[in-house]
Amino acid sequence: MRGSKSSYLRAQRRRSWLRYGLILLALAAVYTGVWAAVWPRSFFAAWPGLGWDWAAARPPYNEELVRDLGALWLGLAVVSLWAAVTLGVRMVQGVLVAWLAVSLPRLLWDARDPGSLAGVARISELAILAASVLVPLVLLVFAARLERRPSRL
């Protein structure tokens, strides 16, 4: 009996990590999405904030493109939150694969093209983009483990 209880607790921890990870991803998407969709000029000039201007390092500015980008981020936030609430394994996996589909090309492009970024800004950009790939990958591992034991959920 003890083994099944510890197995159950491990599954619960994985579910919690999945939920928190999905919420973290959704919050990042909401931050980016609202800013880009509602204040595109400000987004382009100052994203990601904290005195950095990564978007402006790769001109030119295009309001429609920035607003569209914001809307897409908001869509990703919605499905991420939906997955966090429901924790349906297939939904979670689909959302995490979508995150990888967005994040991996961004990381690969920005690793190749620094724009005018250098030093700490460049390292920070690549670290955040790498995290946006690693977090979904780790969460996919948790989701795969949940899938193998659906009766324990």
Explain the overall architecture.
The chain is an all-alpha fold and 153 residues long. It is 80% helix and 3% strand. The chain is built from five helices and two strands. Strands 1-2 form a two-stranded antiparallel ribbon. α1 packs across α5 (119-148). The longest helix has 37 residues, at 2-38. The protein is elongated. The two termini are 16 Å apart.
Number of helices: 5
Q: Helicity level, as a percent range?
A: over 70%
Strand order within the widest beta sheet: 1-2
The gross shape turns out to be elongated
Largest sheet features: 2 strands, antiparallel
- Spans of at least 5 consecutive residues with low confidence: none
Backbone structural class: mainly alpha
Write a compact overview of the structure shown.
Helix content is 80%, strand content 3%.
List keywords for this structure.
153 residues; two-stranded antiparallel sheet
Helix and strand arrangement:
Layout: H1 2-38, H2 40-46, E1 48-49, E2 52-53, H3 63-86, H4 89-112, H5 119-148
Antiparallel strand pairs: 1-2
